[in-house]
Write a structure and sequence with these properties.
Keywords: Membrane, Transmembrane, Transmembrane helix. It holds the Pfam family DUF3043. InterPro entries: DUF3043 (IPR021403). The protein is built from six helices and no strands. It is mainly α. The chain folds into two domains: about 30 residues; about 100 residues, no CATH class. Helix 3 runs parallel beside helix 6, helix 4 runs antiparallel to helix 5 and helix 5 packs across helix 6. About 15% of the residues are buried.
Length: about 180
């Protein structure tokens, strides 16, 4: 069988070495220029900053799954509109730490009593807050899932107000 001249490829077969070299991409060669990398890095940083700012504002699209929805927003606003002993726990522990450094047994024992009493009060407050949240949510949102709402509210109430994320949008004592 003879091939016609039109069936030929018209060039010689490349050497294996040349084919492999053409396929191989150098791992040490930069994928892009320094300016492109810097622009991409700056754009990514700006995107992260914008996303974080939206999260702190409480924009629904920027919130993680655990914070999304009108029920969670209601719980956040309810917790933020009241005072709780849990948000003062960390500053009280700092005072207790300073009091334990005083070499008097009265101060040391007193500070430990203060610490445990604040902890117990915080837990009791959290229990009643959790029950109240579930009661109010079941009245206001009858079809809402109540699982985890009490703990969500209690954990938010134990954070210092200015450290809460998303940031509080209601002031203390405000009804919503």
């Amino acid at each position: 069988m003879t091939e016609s001249t039109s069936d030929k490829k018209g060039r010689p077969t490349p050497k294996r070495k040349d084919s492999e070299a053409a396929r191989k991409v150098s791992s040490i060669a930069p994928a892009s220029t320094r300016e492109e990398k810097k622009r991409a890095k700056d754009a990514a940083r700006a995107g992260r900053n914008a996303s974080r700012a939206a999260y702190l504002r409480g924009d629904e699209n920027a919130l993680p799954f655990r914070d999304k929805g009108p029920v969670r927003k209601f719980v956040r606003n309810y917790v933020d509109s009241r005072r709780s002993i849990g948000e003062y726990f960390l500053p009280i522990i700092f005072v207790v730490l300073v009091l334990t450094l005083i070499p008097s047994p009265i101060f040391q024992v007193g500070s430990i009593i203060i610490m445990y009493s604040v902890l117990l009060t915080s837990v009791v407050d959290g229990y009643f807050l959790s029950r109240k949240i579930k009661q109010i949510v079941s009245e206001k949102f009858p079809d809402a899932q109540l699982k985890g709402l009490g703990m969500y509210g209690w954990l938010r109430s134990t954070q210092m107000r200015r450290m809460r994320t998303p940031k509080p949008v209601v002031s203390r004592g405000e009804s919503f």
